[in-house]
Amino acid sequence: MELLYTNIWIVPICPFIASMLVGLGLFFFPKATKSLRRLCATISIFLLSIAMFISFSISWQQIQSSPIHQLLWSWILNKDISLQIGFLIDPLTSIMLVSVTSVGILVMIYSDSYMSHDQGYVRFFAYLSLFTASMLGLVLSPNLVQIYIFWELVGMCSYLLIGFWFSRPTAANACQKAFVTNRVGDFGLLLGILGIYWITGSFDIYNLSERFNELIDSNKINLFLANTCALLLFLGPVAKSAQFPLHVWLPDAMEGPTPISAPIHAATMVAAGIFFVARMFHFFEALPFTMNVISWIGGITALLGATIALAQKDLKRCLAYSTMSQLGYMMLALGIGSYRAALFHLITHAYSKALLFLGSGSVIHSMEPIVGYSPEKSQNMSFMGGLRKYMPITGITFLSGTLSSCGIPPFACFWSKDEILVDSWISSPSLGWIAWCTAGLTGFYMFRMYFVTFEGSFRGDLYNNTEKSASYKSIWGNFQIPYEQDKFLFNDSYTYISDQTVDFNKVSKNIFSISGKGRKNNSLDSKIFLNISSDFDTPNEILQDSFISTNREMRRKNLLYPKESYNFMLFSLIFLAVPTLFIGFIGVPFSHGGISSDLLSDLLAPLTDSIYKDNSDNLISFFIKSIPSVSIALGGVFTSFFIYGSITSRDLQKEIDPKTKGFLGYLFNVLSNWSYYRGYIDNLYNLIFVEGIRRLSKFICFFDQWIVDGVVNGIGILSFFGGEGMRYGEGGRVSSYLFGLIIGNILMLIILIIKNDILQSYEYFTMF
Fold it and tell me: Residue 76 sits in which domain range?
């Protein structure tokens, strides 16, 4: 066992080595590395498998004995400061290690098929391995300085992955938005770390928590200062875990490749904020005001995310707001002191949401050849419907993830969400109402998403009524397909761009020949390759007709309906469906020695200094207590079925006319606008920060140009003209000086005479 703990450094090093090997190979030997692309993926998966094996072994040791180990090495050592680096192994660490590595390896297996025809395949695996290594280093860090270093690495990797398709303007804007928003939180985190060190004199997590609690108990610290430092520290998790009001980056993070949405929204980036608050829980627990702020921020985030998700049409954005809502649940639980429930929900949500995101990727992968490669088409639920008939495995696994997210027994999230709801009612009726209403809204929007996507009839032909033009970019230039329904099916060399076209006349000297090549388990039965030859002259009209006729023929033969995804993608979905169903049983109470306890509570006992106890004698009473939470969730499900269950058999455009009169039409219009405009928060931020900063910049520019520079330039101009005037008066001639002297004296006499006359007149009038 000691050998296992002393070699824990292997866990973050393995994916880091994979990232360095692939990244350096791509940098120094790009052609050779790209030709060995599958080998790069194999190396990444193999090394992460080693890390996962060690993580599971560590977790098993923690379950058996729950020891806390620290491996430390001196980094900075002098009279003023002593800083160490190393690794901290405790139950919280073991939970996060298993979650990150297991979800990460399934995402890599899934990505091998999903990204197989992308030019950035090798680069994607280099980023993904570095992302995983950064998160593993974060959860193993024993002090705040080391946490902050890996915290920034996680943010950098998210920036690279969100902007992976940087040629797409929306992706470039999304990664910048995520980067700037997280910089706000990270700056607060840095100030909080420095403030806590100033108060406690330590960066070590356990030491600073003990010293801080001693100072609080002895009243040797100002509570205002302590709460200020704690809230600054909490600002980092607010941004990283997409809590209100720094949540605005999370939906736009959907611009990255779909496989990366699973680790970002399930087990890695957004989980980092929850992990940090859990790691510093004993520190925050000593400050009731800060804990109250944390709980209310979590409650507002949960409700806000649920309301915005109600009318979303983009499949991935709907899941993003669902993630935001569930993260709010976790933060609420931590704020009310329900440490176990928060971590429990973190575990169950990681697998459920990873399954949902990978399932959405399978749907998008099958829709792209039909409706086009634009995210506005392939991710739009209006063009889907009836996919369970054509993609049964994806549909069933997606349904299991949906049931889990709604909190329907016996799926994983039911056990954790029910505990949060119960603890919320006990802590505060207001928070209880917020959590309870959010549970009902979750059931509604999650099953709305499922019904519209997988049930009813297929609506793929609706896209013919949309804008009939699309732009694409290839290695030999950009071109535009004139009709959306005749969109050419491009090969590996094409990536989607927007608002960039090129005339076919510029490439009219090239003839494009089409050859077929079989693909297994793909929605296409043939793959198109375009070969350029400059020996022929092809007219512009013939070139366009060849695109259109070929695409029409292939659509008739192969692309009328979506097909199931690759086997490796289905393997990841099926494998994630298992913990989605069974992982919740680690928190189910069982009778042991007269005490009702569970596996998760026993594991977390060293951190909570207590064993979770439940008064229920059996599962029947446990289910009875969960009736309110399940009832509101089922209410949302049935409401969704009433509205969308039958509506999917016809065009979604006939769903509910926003102009419908009456309360129902008005309510739908309000909710639709609220969801479409993201609660108007982005517009408010744009007005305050973007437009406000622009106006402030213009005012500063005007002030600098006309006031600051005006004063300086005015003094210079006055000095110039004054000097020029004096130069003409100093010619060196005595006669000129005498003339000036005489004129000056005459003027002085005139002034004196006028002054005396005025005085005499004044005295004369005063006499009377």
Answer: 1-225
